[in-house]
Write a structure and sequence with these properties.
The complex is a heterotrimer of chains A (347), B (343) and C (333). Chain A has 347 residues and is an alpha+beta fold. Chain A has helices at residues 3-12, 21-34, 141-147, 173-189, 211-220, 260-272, 290-293, 321-336, 338-346, and strands spanning 37-40, 46-50, 58-64, 69-76, 80-86, 98-102, 106-111, 135-136, 153-156, 161-162, 167-170, 197-203, 224-232, 250-254, 277-281, 302-309, 317-320. The two termini of chain A are 38 Å apart. In chain C, helix 1 (2-9) packs across helix 5 (161-176) and helix 5 packs across helix 9. Classes of the chains: A alpha+beta (347), B alpha+beta (343), C alpha+beta (333).
Chain lengths: 347, 343, 333
């Protein structure tokens, strides 16, 4: 299982929040090969368990498997479709996108645009809201309705593209990048000794409020939690302090959502083993699975590692594969000695 | 009596960095409770059981953390960039002193002299992106060595008494922490007829985070939160509710953004106040929230908030009337002593 | 059903002050269930015992309203909203306070109607001065709007169809339910309008296998309405999505399957704002399968919420058929 191939398969598998079935099954199959147990729960959360030597504790690593998208909301006369957003979309990236409607069968469509020739002066300064955008499948109303129903998922047509220097671009890198970190971590753990049981969880519905993480953290009740997500990659025009650099390793989160001493241990470990990493300051809890995991049931001490990602929530989200491998290496090292770390820090 | 408030107000404790204030509270309450414990987030639990079987279990809660700022970058000239922690009006920042990190490094937030500003610049507030903290460092290296990114800071203000009021920072919610401390300091011959778990919580100002663990960890029958809350008895142009007024006694909340007060508990507090001739007021706004919001829905736990009016919360310095503080202690103490009237 | 609905919508019960409506619903549902109780949060539970799946049916009995925050020196009550109350929709409405006092909502003079917010509104209770006002009302009293239910061509118009219509559907379903293998908890929840709080507490205690909320939903069938598929008179709406919940496919499919089998008229619901008790149930503990049956309703959160009697009838039928089925089996993947 080559890392590049898994990235391509994971990002191209559909998995809109609330209907993650396809990507969930793909991930379960990967887990089945790399872990001791692999299950899918009633909400499509995917859980892979790799038993430790002592099973003296549980660590839960979570990466969300869902992606933003749309649902078919209404039909307009002439066979056009109006969309309801699932997750946060920038309306400016929508016009002209190719989409796939997952109805009784897959139906291709385009988010319609007005050619310059038909625009009024000043139109180029305006932003069309989602309510005024529509999907054109080219089909007549009757044919369309025989294939598509209200509530069917609509996703961007997605192809994972390799750029120069080991960079990859596509939709749903947020957060299949994190899911890939889970898998790469498992690969490394196969060759390492670890005491604690490792729960790898592909969580659902993160993009609509970190719901899958809340449910699974309550169910598993781990001793330590690790959220793995993406963070804003460097980009001209954004202050450097607000971003992480592509190719410089995973970004370790610092802030009230994360356990300071565990986080410190993670960074010490990175330095000791010369795994490149960066720091990310998050002054207010929110934005990733960590926010609900930390306060699930009696609470879970958290750390978080994020993969730098440019152009988040677009169809060309771009990352460096090196960062995924480095994050995985760091997390495997961390998991392998958690029994000792936990005793020192929280015991 | 006011020395506990003074001790707590002076403590450092921006959300997520509550070590100093926690240590001070531990020191003050240790001799007055059966046991103390903390959890992984840093909430401090003080247990004071009454020794009677089937006594109701009360959770008294106040948050230790205060609003502040977090350093997130250092410029090449040694100036520090920062973001806010909790709800701070950015317009308050300019021309203030701050202290940063465990070493309490002093710094100032300056601004371009008025002489060099254009007329237009005067008219709009300075955005956060236009503000820097100057610690006197000559370059990036020197500044980062002293105050690395990730360091928390708070306003550098002094505690002072003047006639019947005190000035200080973070009365939201060090006033609540001090009140609970005073309640725990019972005389030898007095004892509450209830089991008390007092919890001094972390991270309230960034979303009621610490308190989110309490329903599961404490499993109380009732909750009372103690707050330092907005006093709005100050000059205002339009008609506006004063929320609470200074020198009018403890404020009881019937509702806020996160919870509706239990009518039983509100009634109990009112009756207790009337019986003991303690002045009180109803809080006259419903904005803001408290830790109760994330506690009371876990199965349904009757809750109420009692507050000391404070002018200028979430600002460098607030004002609190000593008589309000004392009356809040009297009311809460009496309400706990006769708690069986609630049952 | 219509007579019950009239009684239920016209009963007082803003969030946090549900005593009167709770008593009424208790009296109405008691004959049809095995036991009833009120929990610490104030939710009313009516339970039909069974050995199968534990199903929580939630309808919130609270309504939007206001609370008196201050009494001004002229004797007018100043108020803050309880739940999502739009200030302009309050203008000149008649109101009732929990102590029985009546009043009307007035507004300070404003140049631009868009400037109206709660700081400019007041309740006039006919007091001559502050002293008299303080005798008639106190800070902390809760209030609600007054309006009578009326009928127009098969539609009904009333205050607080949100969500008294859900309460009536629950009572009617309990009455009509013949045989069910399930353990059914009809829960009339409190404080939905201020953050689904009653349902959070109830679901936490019940730990159901399935949650079903009954509530109102917006429509796209009025002039220049938001683009939404729901229409009056096109049947009960089976929720697919709102801001609090993405209904799991197996739940939505189950509801639609039952509707089709029993020839019950239904429509899909995609609501682009808001949430219901089902969202709270869904997130309880380690997650609960949950869905929602909705009544398409125009002018939600006004005193003239308008819905179709035929849609309500379809909702009752569908709920009964859902509850009569073997929920455990139906929810298997």
């Amino acid at each position: 299982m080559k890392t590049e191939d898994m990235l391509k398969a994971l990002t191209e598998a559909p998995g809109i929040s609330g209907a993650e079935d396809d990507v969930a099954h793909l991930l379960r199959n990967y887990f089945a090969r790399l872990a001791d147990e692999a299950t899918i729960d009633k909400f499509q959360n995917v859980i892979g368990v790799k038993k430790g030597r002592t099973s003296g504790g549980k660590v839960m690593m979570a990466a969300h498997i869902d992606q933003i998208g749309f649902l078919v909301k209404t039909f307009d006369k002439g066979g056009f479709i109006r969309l309801a957003a699932v997750g946060g979309h920038d309306p400016r990236v929508l016009p002209g996108q190719s989409v796939v409607i997952y109805g009784k069968e897959q139906v291709r469509g385009i988010i319609g645009t007005t050619p310059p020739h038909l625009q009024k002066p000043g139109d180029t300064a305006k932003i069309t809201s989602l309510d005024d955008l529509y999907v054109d499948t080219g089909l007549d109303e009757i044919t369309l309705k025989s294939k598509v129903q209200v509530g069917d998922p609509v996703l961007f047509d997605n192809v994972c593209t390799e750029l120069q220097g080991g960079l990859y671009a596509g939709a749903a890198m947020d957060n299949r990048a994190g899911v890939l970190v889970l898998l790469e971590t498992l690969k490394i753990l196969e060759k390492m000794r670890h005491d604690w049981d490792v729960y790898m969880v592909g969580t659902v519905q993160e993009e609509v409020g970190t719901r899958g993480a809340a449910m699974t953290a309550y169910e598993i009740a781990p001793d330590v939690g690790i959220a793995i997500d993406v963070t804003f990659g460097d980009f001209p025009g954004i202050p450097e302090r607000d971003t992480a650099k592509l190719g410089k390793g995973g970004a370790v989160a610092i802030g009230p959502n994360f356990h300071p001493a565990l986080t410190e241990k993670l960074m010490e470990l990175a330095q000791e083993w010369e795994v490149p990493f960066q720091k990310e300051f998050i002054p207010r809890p929110g934005g990733t699975d960590a926010v609900s995991m930390q306060i699930a049931a009696r609470g879970v001490p958290m750390v978080q590692v994020s993969i730098p990602l440019r152009y988040m929530h677009t169809t060309v989200e771009t990352l460096d594969l090196k960062d995924i491998k480095r994050a995985a290496r760091l997390l495997a090292l961390f998991a392998a000695q958690l029994e000792q770390t936990h005793r020192e820090v929280l015991g | 009596m006011i020395h506990i408030l003074e001790k707590y107000s002076k403590a450092f404790g921006v959300s997520g960095h509550e070590e100093d204030i926690r240590r001070r509270i531990e020191e003050s309450v240790r001799d007055h409770v059966d046991s103390l414990s903390t959890d992984f987030m840093g909430n401090l639990y003080a247990h004071k059981p009454c020794g009677r079987k089937n006594a109701p279990h009360l959770l008294l809660v106040a948050h230790m953390d205060e609003v502040g700022l977090l350093i997130n970058g250092v410029e090449s000239n040694g100036m520090l960039r920062f973001v806010l922690v909790g709800g701070v009006d950015p317009r308050l920042l300019v021309s203030k002193r701050v202290i940063l990190g465990k070493e309490r490094v002093p710094g100032v937030i300056g601004a371009k002299p008025i002489h060099l500003q254009s007329r237009d610049e005067w008219k709009s507030p300075i955005p956060l992106s236009g503000l820097y903290i100057d610690i006197g460092a000559s370059d990036e290296k020197e500044a980062a060595a002293k105050v690395p990114p990730g360091t928390a800071g708070t306003f550098h203000t002094f505690f002072e008494a003047q006639e019947d009021v005190v000035f200080g920072k973070a009365f939201d919610d060090r006033a609540g922490c001090a009140l609970i401390t005073e309640l725990l300091m019972t005389e030898e011959d007095e004892s509450y007829p209830v089991d008390i778990t007092a919890v001094f919580t972390v991270q309230e100002e960034v979303g009621l985070r610490g308190a989110s663990l309490l329903a599961e960890r404490v499993r109380p029958d009732f909750v009372i939160a103690f707050e330092g809350t907005t006093a709005g008895d100050v000059p205002r142009d339009d008609y506006a509710s004063p929320s609470t007024e200074m020198r009018k006694g403890p404020a009881i909340s019937f509702m806020d953004r996160t919870a509706i007060g239990s009518p039983r508990l509100i009634e109990h507090l009112k009756k207790t106040a009337e019986k003991n001739k303690i002045p009180f007021q109803m809080k006259k706004t419903v904005s803001g929230g408290t830790d109760i919001g994330v506690i009371h829905t876990k199965g349904g736990i009757p809750s109420v908030v009692v507050s000391v009016p404070v002018r200028y919360i979430h600002a460098p310095r607030g004002i609190l009337a000593v008589e309000d503080y004392k009356n809040t202690i009297r009311l809460a103490k009496a309400a706990l002593m006769n708690f069986k009237e609630v049952l | 059903m219509k007579a019950l609905l009239k009684k239920v919508v016209e009963t007082f019960g803003p969030s946090g002050r549900e005593d009167a409506i709770r008593q009424l619903l208790l009296d109405e549902i008691k004959p049809y269930v095995d036991r009833t109780f009120i929990d610490n949060m104030g939710n009313l539970h009516a339970v039909k015992e069974g050995k199968g799946a534990r199903v929580m049916v939630a309808a919130h009995m609270d309504e939007i309203g206001f609370v008196v925050t201050h009494i001004d020196e002229k004797g007018f009550l100043r108020i803050s909203p309880v739940g999502g109350v739009a200030p302009v929709r309050c203008l000149y409405q008649r109101v009732l306070l929990e102590n029985g006092a009546r009043g009307v909502v007035g507004v300070e003079s404003v140049k631009n109607p868009n400037d109206i917010d709660f700081s400019k509104l007041y309740v006039d209770i006919g007091a001559r001065d502050e002293k008299e006002a303080r005798k008639l009302a106190q800070e902390g009293l809760f209030g609600a709007f007054l309006n009578e239910m009326t009928e127009m061509n098969g539609l009904i118009t009333a205050k607080s169809l949100d969500d008294r219509v859900g309460c009536v559907i629950a009572v009617e379903a309990a009455r009509q339910l013949k045989k069910s293998p399930n353990e059914i908890h009809f829960v009339f929840t409190v404080q939905e309008e201020v953050g689904l709080r009653g349902a959070i507490a109830a679901a936490y205690n019940i730990e159901p296998d399935l949650g079903i909320a009954l509530d109102v939903t917006g429509t796209g069938d009025t002039p220049d309405a938001p683009k939404m598929p729901m229409k009056l008179r096109e049947g009960v709406a089976v929720k697919i999505k709102d801001n609090s919940l993405l209904v799991p496919r197996r739940v939505k499919d189950f509801f639609m399957r039952v509707a089709e089998k029993n020839k019950i008229i239904y429509q899909p619901e995609i609501l682009t704002f808001g949430g219901t008790d089902a969202g709270a149930i869904n997130l309880s503990r380690s997650g609960v399968l949950a869905g929602c049956l909705s009544i398409p309703t125009r002018y939600i959160h006004s005193v003239s919420e308008t819905a179709s009697l035929s849609d309500i009838e379809e909702a009752i039928k569908l709920l009964v058929k859902i509850l009569e089925s073997d929920v455990k089996k139906e929810l298997e993947d």
